[in-house]
Specification:
Length: about 850
């Protein structure tokens, strides 16, 4: 069944209050739910009360205290005809959390009980109008064995607790803020807290707890520091204050996604909470900070103002991603953060936008909403709001968000409400800009520069590609930050913002005796692809001199992309190859030694474009050729710049561990340099990697060395992998790394290694982190996934079929990799398609996988 945005109808009944009573047990939990229901004055007609359900049975239904039997089921939903305007409806259900392998609703993880209700998990706990525009005040009571569940948590504040005779205890929780059911949460288990406090700007003291399994509390301080920084930052930057006396975070090891913003009780995947230098890389530290911020910021963008329906998901997710990006930029390096965010967008969202699953940031229809928690809704959603901010300027944008928060506080709002508030508050006209919400596809902007006399003209044109269901596209407003550099002085007269809002347009600039060098889409001001023909010498110039750090990175990437696309596409003669390499080498050498660069930025500039991004530049890609050419370039760089790279590695090795930017930068270039040294000279690479591994006193160094060793066919490889496994036995997050780095390696036997790892006693299909470690590692590894034998496709196809009955949501996440077949050369494409067809032939597929596979086959 297809759900359509245009079919939205307000709910017939509202539920202002709900009281839930849980009798907790790992494999049997009883739930009594009491709903105060009132007819919605805004809904037309007298309709039955619809209570959604999913794989649950109603043990009893009572209306106004009387047991009734005339309720009926419609599919999974329970319908009750109610005569009057207000009633008390009670429903009893029973669930088995231990058997809940989908990890939606109430489930058991590591001996504790927890919930995940977004998007439609609440209906797996009890019958309820499980839609985000039904807001209720929640009172929760839970009873459970005290030894099994010493800690009992829910949303809001704990209002009472006590003991029963038989070793049981109970707690009552009340959340004063009305919320939709997807924000409900309950946690019960043996947990210990890192406790702290935060005083808000108006002087409210808030208790903060980060709850983890006993033994993990020593790895929670970074999460706590990040939480406190988030609370402070949201006050300072968005004027948003926390609104309860208590804020709890719980870390659980079995979780489908990153984390969940349940009101006052965030539930997190352990990987975004636990961090210490011995077990977490610098990247892990950043991810913890970013996700802690993200979930905290949802308290306003998501909870105080929620979504009217799930088509509006980007209202809370796009905005909250932007907020977490700005937060992380303020906490660290703005330049590096921007580059990382663009890299994620290009590697995850661009392929989505150009494939069979393309959808606008506000989709028009879906079959399974879990399939729409995508890079498009999240990351492109953030880019779209970032463009509004760029066009308005930060101060005016803030006036827009202030108005949004004020106007819609307490409501279930729409993307249109957000746009209108930004228009009214920030003083923008977003009439045409709204197309960014309805049109899918990454716009392609063609740019060229001409020069005559002293006039430089920038000519721009745009096309928005055809996407499934959207054959005709209109031009959109595309804000481009540009600068024109004088070649001799290496300076420009100031950056300009031009907005291309027609199919084509040109912009004239005066005062250039010679043709300037064009720097365009600086800071990645619009989420578009730019098609521009530029001489290598111009790109070398920008890579060395552009004062916009993103543009500098972009120039370096373009040099490499232009060369590799040409090499793969038409094959290059020796002279052309030598010329392109010389240009890349010149820019690369400047990056290695430029004293004005900090090492975090230097490390960023040293990263070569991903194979998936290179494939994206070609209509039909040959993954084997892309891999070979990219590896050949790495080898060349490693040999040609061996001295500079070893000098860089030596310098970085001498820097002691610290969490400051300089020490982190040193670790970043250390690992970048090591990888290139190994590409140029396997012996020297293995020697240095092994030494770095042995000497490591932190996970960034240890993992960086092991990643290099894992791709080499050398004896040190096995020894280091075994040492690593032994050292971290029992630490699930680190064992995940062990699986993931082997699955992601370029080792000649990588596919055989992956098959072996799937048989390893530490592997399990029921833990999403472990499944992703091994199989996302494989699906994202071009060498393994696109192996000419088709073995990589079979591996992922088999996985999807075996995982679907256990955890459909996680299984469905693997389909898009196979769904790329149309953009891959024909021999591989046929094998990818065959895997999709084999999945489609399964008799009882989940709605999640069915939707993705059907759309991918097209
Ligand atoms: N709202 C959560 C976040 O963005 C994600 C939860 C998604 N869960 C799901 N089952 N689709 O942080
Ligand atoms: Zn979110």
């Amino acid at each position: 069944p297809v759900i359509r945005r245009e079919d939205y109808l307000p709910p017939a009944w509202l539920v202002p209050e709900i009281a839930l009573d849980f009798a907790l047990g790992i494999d049997e939990t009883r739930v009594v739910s009491k709903l105060k229901v009132v007819r919605n004055p805004d809904a037309a007609g007298a309709t039955a009360l619809r209570l959604h359900g999913d794989q649950i049975a109603a043990l009893a239904v009572r209306v106004d205290g009387e047991a009734i039997n005339d309720w009926r089921l419609e599919g999974p939903d329970l319908l009750v005809e109610l005569p009057g305007a207000e009633h008390l409806v009670e429903v009893e259900t029973q669930v088995n959390p231990a058997a809940n392998s989908k990890l939606m609703g109430l489930y058991a993880s590591n001996g504790m009980l927890c919930t995940q209700c977004e998007a439609e998990g609440f209906r797996r706990i009890t019958f309820f109008p499980d839609r985000p525009d039904v807001l209720s005040t929640y009172s929760v009571r839970m009873t459970g064995d005290k030894a099994t569940f010493p800690i009992l948590l829910s949303n809001g504040n704990c209002t009472a607790q006590g003991e029963d005779a038989d070793g049981a205890h109970w707690a009552e929780w009340h959340d004063p803020w009305p919320k939709p059911s997807y924000l409900f949460a309950l946690v019960a288990g043996d947990l210990v807290a890192n406790h702290s406090t935060f005083t808000t700007m108006s002087g409210r003291e808030v208790d903060l707890n980060i709850w983890v399994r006993p033994g993990d509390e020593g790895r929670t301080q970074h999460a706590m520091d990040s939480l406190i920084a988030s609370m402070k930052w949201d006050e300072q930057v968005f004027g948003r204050e926390y609104d309860l006396d208590l804020f709890n975070i719980v870390a659980v090891s079995d979780f489908n996604m990153g984390a969940m913003e349940n009101k006052g009780l965030n539930v997190f995947n352990t990987r975004y909470v636990l961090a210490d230098p011995e077990t977490a890389t610098d990247g892990d530290y950043d991810a913890v900070e970013g996700v802690i911020g993200h979930e905290y910021f949802h308290n306003w963008s998501g909870n105080r103002i929620t979504c009217r329906d799930w088509f509006q998901l980007s209202l809370k997710e796009g905005f909250t991603v932007l907020r977490d990006q700005l937060f992380s930029a303020d906490m660290g390096s703005e330049a590096v953060k921007r580059i990382e965010d663009v890299r994620i967008l290009r590697s995850a969202q661009f392929p989505e936008d150009s494939g069979p699953l393309a959808h606008p940031i506000r989709p028009d229809s879906y079959q399974e909403i879990n399939n729409f928690y995508t890079a498009t809704v999240y990351n492109k959603g953030a880019e779209v709001i970032r463009m509004m901010r760029t066009m308005a300027g930060p101060e005016w944008f803030r006036k827009g968000t202030d108005l949004y928060f004020e106007r819609h506080d307490g409501e279930a709002a729409t993307c249109e409400d957000f746009i209108k508030a930004i228009e009214d508050g920030a003083g923008l006209d977003l009439t045409q800009f709204r197309l960014w919400y309805s049109q899918a596809g990454t716009p392609l902007v063609s740019a060229s520069l001409s020069h005559e006399g002293t006039t430089a003209t920038v000519s721009l044109s745009q096309t928005v590609p055809v996407t499934p269901g959207q054959p005709d596209k209109k031009p959109m407003p595309i804000p481009l930050r540009i600068a024109l550099f004088d070649r001799d002085s290496g300076t420009h007269a100031g950056e300009q913002l031009v907005v291309l809002d027609k199919a084509s347009d040109s912009f004239v600039f005066e005062g250039f005796a010679k043709p300037p060098v064009l720097s365009i889409n600086r800071g990645f001001s619009a989420p578009v692809s730019i098609d521009i023909e530029r001489a290598n010498e111009d790109l070398v110039f920008l890579a060395a001199r552009d004062d916009d750090p993103f543009a500098r990175y972009e120039a370096m990437q373009s040099l490499v992309v232009q060369h590799l696309v040409a090499a793969v596409g038409q094959g290059l003669g020796d002279a052309a190859r030598a010329e392109a390499r010389a240009a890349i080498g010149k820019a690369f050498a400047a990056i290695l030694t430029d004293p004005a660069l900090d090492d975090l930025m230097r490390g960023e500039l040293m990263i070569l474009p991903a194979e998936s991004y290179l494939a994206e530049q070609m209509l039909v890609a040959d993954p084997g050729a892309i891999h070979a050419e990219r590896e050949a370039l790495k080898t060349w760089l490693g040999r040609e710049y061996a001295d500079a790279l070893t000098a860089l590695h030596d310098r970085a090795v001498a820097v002691p561990y610290g969490r400051d930017a300089a020490a982190r930068g040193a670790r970043k270039i250390k690992n970048q340099a090591l990888a290139l040294i190994a590409a140029g000279n396997a012996q020297e690479g293995a020697r240095r990697a092994y030494a770095q591994y042995r000497a490591a006193d932190n996970m960034t160094d240890r993992q960086g060395a092991l990643i290099v060793l894992a791709s080499l066919d050398v004896p040190e490889r096995e020894e280091a992998l075994a040492e690593f496994h032994g050292r971290y036995e029992g630490n699930a997050l680190v064992i995940d790394k062990w699986f993931s780095l082997q699955a992601g390696s370029f080792h000649p036997q990588v596919l055989a290694n992956i098959r072996k790892l799937a048989e390893h006693p530490d592997f399990t299909m029921t833990n999403p982190n472990r499944v992703r470690a091994l199989y996302m590692g494989a699906a994202m590894n071009p060498k393994a996934f696109h192996d000419a034998s088709g073995e990589g496709y079979r591996l992922i196809g088999d996985l999807i079929r075996r995982l679907d009955p256990i955890n459909p949501q996680t299984a469905a996440r693997f389909v898009p990799s196979l769904g790329r077949w149309r953009r891959i050369e024909s021999v591989r494409a046929a094998m990818m398609r065959a895997e999709l067809e084999k999945i489609a032939a399964e008799p009882s597929l989940s709605r999640d996988v069915r939707e993705q596979v059907t759309k991918s086959l097209g």
